[in-house]
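I trust your eye. Have a critical look at both lines of this record:
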Amino acid sequence: MRKKAALIIKDKVCLENGAIVEVRLWSVPVSDDKPYGYKYSLVYIVAGERIIGYDNAEGKGDHRHYGKQEEPYIFKDIDTLIKDFYNDVEKVSLTNGKD
């Protein structure tokens, strides 16, 4: 019998300018696809468009979306993941004045 995912973090914030920051993290069984036992999705959306995204979708492994670009992301631990995500959100917000 396969163990189900257990939600650890679900946080969604709608900013004054209409932007959305959403963080979701689950504990999952360790597998080849999720060797550290976590599934995650962190996203920053402005005007309905994903600006920053971090996830480890099935079969794609750990990666980061930065605008239209997608690149590998090296997962170290949950704290680093969240810190990296918010650092990117802050950089984009300051650069584009969207926050």
Observations:
- The longest helix spans residues 78-96.
- The mean pLDDT is 91.
